[in-house]
Design goal:
It is built from 13 helices and ten strands. The protein is α/β, with parallel strands linked by helices and 368 residues long. It has one domain: TIM Barrel (Alpha-Beta Barrel), CATH 3.20.20.80. The protein is globular and about 65 Å long.
Amino acid sequence: MARLFFTFFLLASSPVVLAQARIDSLLPTRGFCIAAPKPHQLDTFLKFINEELAPRQVNTLILRIDFNYQFDSHPELRDSASLSKRDVKKLVKVCQKNRILLIPQINLLGHQSWASTTHNLLRIYPQFDETPHVKMPEKYSWPNPDGLYCKSYCPLHPDVHQVVFALVDEICDVFEAEAFHAGMDEVFYIGDDKCPRCSGRDKSELFAGEVAEIRHHLAQKNRKLWIWGDRLIDGKTTGIGMWEGSFNNTHRAIDLIPKDVTICDWHYERPDQTAVYFAMKGLNVITCPWRKPGFAVTQTQDMVKFRQSATPVMKERFQGMMQTVWSGAGAFLDEFYGVKVNPEAGENTQANCFRALYGEIKRLTDEN
């Protein structure tokens, strides 16, 4: 018994174990979010996980899948070039080896179109469209008379969840996922006056209802829900605006959604400290930078200060940091490895932001 205790003591006091404990205490979640690679990019992406994410002690990887998978439940919704089950298992294996939590994302509710393109769900099932009277333009511009940014599906359509939950279940199963990211950012179309089901309903209740519907479905298999946080911020009162906050009153949903939903709080043009707001509402929150290295450093310092100065109850809600990437995986890897560099971008690139974020995490870990 004494020998066993001594062995445990040696292991627990080793430099590697102590360093891991320090960084886990500093920032429990250290994330990276990017579009899933296409099949021909997979090997390079696996190399990136092994050689760049793991050494920086990234422990959470969100892959935006959408329709980039060879779904069996709804093969009609597959992208033309999409990941196979074998491809996904390679991702699962490398993440498990590096102790990285792998979370798939499919955009639910909003982001069912982009520019002049209708995405697969509404293209195949146009009856799910919240605003069928808004026609997709040949040439997209913003602003426009229809207020079209991205299409949404109608959360009250009687058949929509049967389809989208089949996708969610299948992708979570193949990824062996403990959590699922539903997107739900930048939802401009919700509770439209011309929708026969949603017209006249409170937009915050509609949004909260959809969050709860997804959360409850995931809970049946002990999975957790993650979403972006912008629709839960009052864009008018805060001055944060219509992109990083809500102008259509969905922000009131923050008091209606389940408290075990994790919020990914993104701010790209200012390092706003709204993580405090989410934590005070009882929600776990992760701060997410994008392409400005200076802001990423400030946001990381803020998150550490929040954890250090908060009450024990509040501290655990400040979960950490996550780099977000909004180009395709191939474009980011080209930028990161110097294959294609945009000289006009200067220092404000996704790759530089990623390096700065994790450089600051290392610096703060070494100090503590």
